[in-house]
Design a protein that fits this description.
This protein is of the alpha+beta class. It has 19 helices and 24 strands. It has a 15-stranded mixed beta sheet that branches.
Amino acid sequence: MENRTAGWVLLIIALFVASSLILSAGTPAPLPDTSPQTAFSAERAFAYVSAFAIAPHPLGSAEHDRVRDYLVAQITSLGLIPEVQRAMGVTPLYQVAGTVENIVTRLKGTSGAADAVALVAHYDSVCAGPGAGDDGAGVAGLLETLRALRAGPPLRNDILIVLTDGEEDGLLGASAFTEENPAAKDVRVALNFDNRGDAGEAQLFETSEGNGRLVRIFGQASPHPAGSSLSYEIYKHLPNDTDMTVFKKAGAAGLNFGFIGHWEAYHTRMDNAASLDHGSLQQLGENELSLARSLGDTDLAHLQDRDVVYFSLPGNVFLHYSSSFLWPLAILCGVALFGAIFYANGAWQTRLPAILISLLAHIGALVMLVVVGLGFAIGARWLHLHALPEGPVYLSVLYTLGLLALLAGALTEYYRMILKKIAAPGFFLGGAILLMLLLLAASRWLPGGSYIFVLPLLAGLLATGVAAFRPGRVSLPRVGMLCALSLPALFLFVPLLKGFFIALGLTQMGAPLISLAFGVLFLLLFPFLEAALESSGKLITVVSLAAAIVLCIVAARTTRYTAAHPKASLLAYALDADSGKAIWTSSAARADSWTGHYVGASPRRGKLPDFYPVWYPIEFLQNAAPAVQLASPLAELVDKASDDATRTLHLHISSPRHARTIRVGIPQSEVLSASVNGRDLGKPSDARWHEAGQWEFDYANPPAGGIDVELRVRGAGPVTVVLVDRSSGLPAIPGADFLPRPDNSMAIHSGDQTMVRRSYVFE
């Protein structure tokens, strides 16, 4: 076979493998409700979702109470006695508190010991959506798992089913359970199931420290294992939490699972039962049931072991190795790199200066790609804000494919220019040095993600030594060897590219990461595709750039907000009771025909420090609104004390409107400590988001009679207290005729709401 022909064969095979990996769903077929009673059936679990995730059921709502009663009845019908834990949860991490109702039941084991495996999901939703994925799927999975466990042989350890409340308001139910429920002291390991979307693979995305034994149990027990330690490394650096955060803080070992596909639905009306993927539910539930059985018969006294690096591959392959191999593997790659450089010096007279120049060229290429990706995302968004109709650019597959085609065209032309000056083996070895540096950096600062470099780098170096960069005819065995050696890069980086798009989309964070991963993949595949790149001339460049133009034109014409892809936004009526003035506010990027009915055609834009925390990242469209007579939140001074340095205020705070949440803020005094209903709120500095001199906390689902707050502040002067209460829905305004949301628009997170602000000064 001619070298040129072999190169094109390898290119076609690489494109075929990459396409297959992208198009693979990765989830099992859902089992019907006629499946054996000891098996997990997504169709049986889906019956639960269809029954309770039919409307938003946030903490404090009437629908929430209906869902609670339904879940209690289902657990009772399974032959267990559910406990409804009514308590106040306090989460210092978010400076929040609230009244919650957890649902807890226990399936006793045969050992007689109290040690328990906790299966956790939250049953509350946000105000804007029914929560079929977040977290109806998790709750339904627990009920179906409990049913299947009851149908099988008894387990050694106790199984605790913990359906937490108030997760969406700041992990309140988990905080109340770990702090106040006697069963919490028995939890040795917690498995949490929480989802950000309603489709995709159910992945292990977080573990506790010392995860070696737990990850090995997961890999052995789960029929469809998915997840990677890279995901956990990334998750550590994100400002995101689930109930697992609270359980880990309480000392439990744990694993956290969820699916994030179709995150357009997250916290919106689209997160409904009709949109929930049954294959995702099947995978989540099967893994949940198998882990419950495995851990249910495991000695829970010694769960901690050295952390492991782990990742899954298509075909239910789950690999893991001890973190003690991080540096030996890095050294092995270093030795292989040195050997390849030495070999290339003799085989192709490759000199070190050329390799070092190539290293700089590859660094420049990756920097270029990151800049192009960021500029592409910003440019596409700008066009749809100012020149084209608005649309979900960040979800556009066509725009993303257009970006990848653009990157491919730019890289092939860039490589072609460099290869005129530097021979292909030296050019790749310069890139291999860069990959080695990335491996060393990952081993030091991102250990769970180091695996993505190890096998592909070793494969590329091996290809360089035995099969690649050789002139003349190519034998079929050599072509087969090159195909096999290209698979590590494809099997690790193509799912990574897909994962970046699913998790982040074509955003200002996602596009640069997609571009960077694409550049590294291109570099790793260079030994296998070099012959095709060399023989094609400018063909690949021209075809790629032409494809990019066509894809972007089609994307520009078709990316629109529609009933299938509505625009998500927050709309609120905000009344300042101090001034008697009100405003409409919207988080929309620009005023459209519907938003304009509220904020006008030319609204001002800015933050709302009077109604939202100063750290809140959104700038709102704002316009004057008619002032409506609404009862404002009340703060009454119950007691006070002072000395030369501090003042202590005991306040009774209530919402005559019976709003769902109350925010208490102290904007001008330094708060040294605070408590609500006698419970410490933690140090203000412990909060994830806080500003110096700006203290505030939220109380969700306040009792009708109000709450008692005690504050100790620095100084002896007057103290200003600002209250904002929030209720779902917009007020009725006499004489106003505002249109309801059209089909191509939807509320998100807290939903459309009414806010009333009032300040008090206590001498």
